[in-house]
Design goal:
single chain, 450 residues, alpha/beta, FAD/NAD(P)-binding domain, eight-stranded mixed sheet, globular, binds flavin-adenine dinucleotide
């Protein structure tokens, strides 16, 4: 098993951030529970789970707890996917705008989606809490769940006006939301940059690398065999099930769960024609003076702004600020993206002008055209994908619901909507995104002209 490399937290000469995931510095390595590479693969199992993020780990644990023999295959190491490198923000809602969900499903249908989102948050609260079923009780790992809620911040008066109807729509769907004026926002953020906002009194934050490590630990304790550096390369239908081939040998199975999300490769061409994959990027500051952190985050909430090219930021349990987003959909280098994110963070909070940025990193996520998650059976594999930037809670709960469905239970809500291939020539390389990005940037610019 590989060791996490020990590297200086801050580049001593160049005064630039280290290109590494800040969360990894303060979490057990999820890979420690993987089976050694030298052991042969089992000949036959009930389930092969492909992908070792929240979706794969949650599905694998659920299936094992229901009595199945489960093998989880991870292409790289478990920290390669988005699950240990995201913002750790557990929030109500989806990538899709509320108005879009209401338009697509009507008010009752939209309420069902938001109920799903609330249930997913409840599941994280249960796993992150201190009860008998929590991950802390099962594995001894504190995932640093904080039920803080979040703020959505409008960077212009026009955007603040739009939030009034957003608040009305969401409270009609059972979301605990409060509209806040500029003065209230200033009090909650010490920032002059925002013209208004929403407070959503549900959800909160976790330390994502700890959550993933705890989920890997819990899956292994439930009997899941986890194999890293073991890509699934081919799936063949054989009498009574499937044969999954990897560089370390083949395994027969009756069921396959696909949890590959933004890292989908040529094994799943049908998913690549449906899932749009995109990178998201983050930076982290050095630990702040306690008084400054309290001034900027008196309530400790998670934060988003309301732009298409949204920024998201939060205080971390070890006293830093983690800040994420992007400003275009053109390919770019991590060092340039880190500079842009740093400028944005300082624009929101000029108090951080002299605060050092110690880390920068990125990851991949996937979304469907309507920006709602999907559970879809394609070519013998049941895929869970497309939770966009809301996958921590949704992937965790939906993976459990997907296993229950496969074992005779009710279909999860996202399994009830079709997932069509994109109506353009496309297989995994979203050439059209930079052009869509120009439209998003134009909308952002227009909405900021008060
Ligand atoms: C920078 C960033 C910030 C984010 N912030 C948030 C946030 O604050 N809140 C939130 O809710 N969500 C956030 N997200 C989204 C969230 O991280 C994802 O939705 C979630 O982690 C997806 O989990 P997953 O298990 O489906 O996929 P992943 O964690 O991406 O795992 C997929 C795994 O599949 C593996 N794989 C692929 N192909 C194969 C194969 N052939 N064989 C074996 N293994 C394979 C990959 O190596 C990868 O490890 C963010 C994402 C990013 C990138």
């Amino acid at each position: 098993m590989r060791q996490t490399p020990v590297v200086a937290k801050y580049h001593p000469i160049m005064n630039t951030p280290r290109f590494a995931v800040m969360w990894h510095d303060d979490a057990p390595d999820a890979n420690r529970v993987a089976q050694p590479d030298t052991e042969p693969l089992p000949v036959a199992v009930d389930w092969v789970v492909i992908g070792g993020g929240f979706a794969g780990l949650s599905a694998a644990r659920r299936a094992a707890e229901r009595g199945a023999r489960v093998l989880l295959l991870e292409k790289g190491d478990l920290r390669r996917g988005a699950s240990s490198r995201n913002g750790g923000m557990v929030h109500v809602g989806f990538g899709a705008p509320t108005s879009g969900i209401i338009k697509q499903f009507g008010t009752d249908g939209a309420r069902a989606w938001f109920t799903l989102s609330r249930q997913a948050i409840d599941r994280i609260a249960e796993l992150g809490g201190t009860g008998a079923d929590s991950l802390a009780a099962t594995t001894g790992i504190d995932v640093q769940w904080r039920p803080t809620g979040h703020l959505e911040l409008a960077p212009s008066r026009r955007a603040a006006l739009d939030l009034a109807s957003e608040a009305e729509m969401r409270s009609g769907l059972g979301v605990p939301v409060r509209l806040l004026d500029q003065v209230a926002i200033r009090g909650l953020t010490s920032s002059e940059r925002f013209a208004g906002g929403l407070a959503v009194d549900a959800g909160g934050g976790v330390q994502p690398a700890r959550l993933q490590a705890a989920m890997a630990d819990a899956a292994q304790r439930a009997g899941v065999e986890i194999r890293t550096e073991t890509p699934a390369q081919q799936i063949k239908r054989v009498p009574g099930g499937y044969l999954v081939t990897t560089p370390r040998g083949s395994v027969r199975t009756s069921h396959i769960f696909g949890g590959v999300n933004g890292y989908v490769d040529s094994l799943f061409p049908a998913v690549r024609r449906r899932a749009i994959t995109v990178g998201s990027y983050m930076i982290a500051t050095e630990p702040l003076d306690v008084a400054l952190l309290r001034e900027l985050f008196p309530g400790g909430e998670m934060r988003f702004d309301t732009r298409n090219f949204l920024s998201y930021w939060r205080p971390t349990p070890d006293g830093r600020i983690a800040f994420g987003g992007r400003t275009s959909l053109w390919p770019d280098s991590l060092s340039r993206i880190a500079r842009t994110l740093t400028a944005r963070l300082r624009e929101f909070h000029p108090q951080l002008a002299n605060t050092r940025i110690t880390h920068a990193w990125g990851g991949q996520l996937a979304f469907a055209l309507d920006r709602l998650p999907r559970v879809t059976r394609l070519d013998g594999v049941t895929h869970l994908s497309g939770c966009a930037g809301s996958g921590i809670a949704l992937m965790t709960l939906l993976a459990e619901q997907t296993i229950d469905w496969e074992l005779g239970g009710e279909a999860p809500l996202p399994a009830r909507i079709p997932w069509h291939a994109l109506p353009i020539p496309y297989e995994g390389h979203p050439w059209f995104l930079p052009f869509a990005g120009i439209g998003f940037a134009l909308q952002d610019w227009l909405s900021e002209r008060d």
